[in-house]
Write a structure and sequence with these properties.
Shape: globular
Oligomer: single chain
Order of helices and strands: HEHEHEHHEEHEHEHEHHEHHH
Bound molecules: (2R,3R)-2,3,4-trihydroxybutanoic acid
CATH class: Alpha Beta
Number of domains: 1
CATH architecture: 3-Layer(aba) Sandwich
CATH topology: D-Maltodextrin-Binding Protein, domain 2
Number of strands: 9
Helix content: 40-55%
Strand content: 15-25%
Structural class: alpha/beta
């Protein structure tokens, strides 16, 4: 009797000691952000990523999502991921050449024929090879995502041909290839971070801007822009980026969970782009936009002769042709 009571007491205190020594399963918090609204092809991407990481790691990682540039624009966000003050970001490639110059080749106008061409190139060896350029810059690129083919909007006039662009002041991304090419189109490029664009359009600081239909609709640019021309002048890739030190800390199984979550994020992202592409023109027209649909893209391309020659020298004509001809 005595022994068993002593035994029970010992077990009880041992149990209590064990309980207090076993912490609740540790949770790691990470941040991810986008510069545009949650209700968008990019919002779907980071929400899916957060959900899939949590699901695949039993909730050991909590990915907190921030939208509408509340943590900063895309250049600031890539910088934060590189420095490690923020673990993750989903961004267009707009500012990325300032960190990984090789990626700029993808920003050449009229490089990709259509969505299928762009997606298969990025998912194939060319895209995967480019992802390999990030780690030496302190960043791990988990996957290519999609922003979409960019089209021009402005508040001044319908754009039917390159001549109509002459003298239009247009906000561009902070992207050296775009800025160089858009000058050749005849516009006056004004690079600016995305969170400032709506106000700049509203106040007339710039006449126009260019973005994929997914961005134009989610940002409600129809409220401040009258004319949309489906120029499709350049494909805008996106990337899911992670701070390399944060990635290196992950055990192998968690790395796999993050990679799989990134794949799911891209699937959701592209599906939403497809959906936006089907609906956006009718939607924007119904909200009062004047949409020019069937432009002669060859005319826009023709303004880029010397610019293309320069890109050929800069990036290697072989490399450009390899992307152009990728099947
Ligand atoms: O990534 O800055 C831009 O125009 C981007 O296309 C937009 O923020 C979405």
């Amino acid at each position: 009797m005595r022994t068993s009571r002593l035994f029970m007491a010992l077990m009880a205190s041992l149990g209590a000691a064990l309980l207090s020594a076993t912490p609740a399963a540790a949770q790691t918090n990470m941040k991810i952000n986008i510069s545009i609204a949650q209700n968008s092809h990019q919002g779907v991407a980071i929400d899916t990523f957060a959900r899939e990481v949590e699901k695949r790691t039993g909730g050991r990682y909590k990915i907190q999502a921030f939208y509408s540039g509340s943590l900063g624009g895309e250049r600031e966000s890539v910088e934060a991921v590189q420095l490690g003050t923020q673990e993750l970001t989903f961004t267009s490639t707009g500012p990325v050449p300032n960190f990984v110059p090789e990626v700029a080749i993808l920003d050449i106008p009229f490089l990709f024929r259509d969505y299928a061409h762009a997606r298969s190139t990025l998912d194939g060896p060319i895209g995967q090879d480019l992802l390999g350029k990030f780690p030496s810059k302190g960043i791990v690129a988990l996957a290519w995502g999609e922003n979409g083919f960019r089209h021009m909007t402005n508040s001044k006039r319908a754009v039917n041909a390159p001549d109509d662009l002459k003298g239009l002041k247009m906000r561009t991304m902070e992207n050296p290839v775009h800025i160089q090419a858009y000058k050749a189109f005849g516009i006056i490029p004004t690079p600016m971070a995305f969170p400032e664009v709506f106000t700049a359009l509203q106040q007339g600081t710039v006449d126009g801007q260019e973005n994929p239909l997914s961005v134009i609709t989610s940002a409600k640019f129809e409220q401040v822009q009258k004319h949309l021309s489906l120029t499709g002048h350049v494909y805008s890739p996106a990337l899911l980026l992670m701070n390399k030190a944060a990635w290196d800390k992950l055990p192998a199984a968690d790395k796999q969970a993050f990679s799989e979550a990134a794949k799911e994020a891209v699937k959701a992202n592209r599906a939403r782009v497809d959906d936006d592409e089907r609906k956006a023109v009718a939607d924007l027209r119904s909200k009062g936009m004047n949409v020019v649909e069937n432009l002669d893209k060859g005319k826009f391309q023709a303004t880029l002769g010397p610019t293309y020659a320069d890109f050929g020298k800069k990036f290697g004509q072989d490399n450009i042709d390899r992307i152009r001809n990728y099947k």
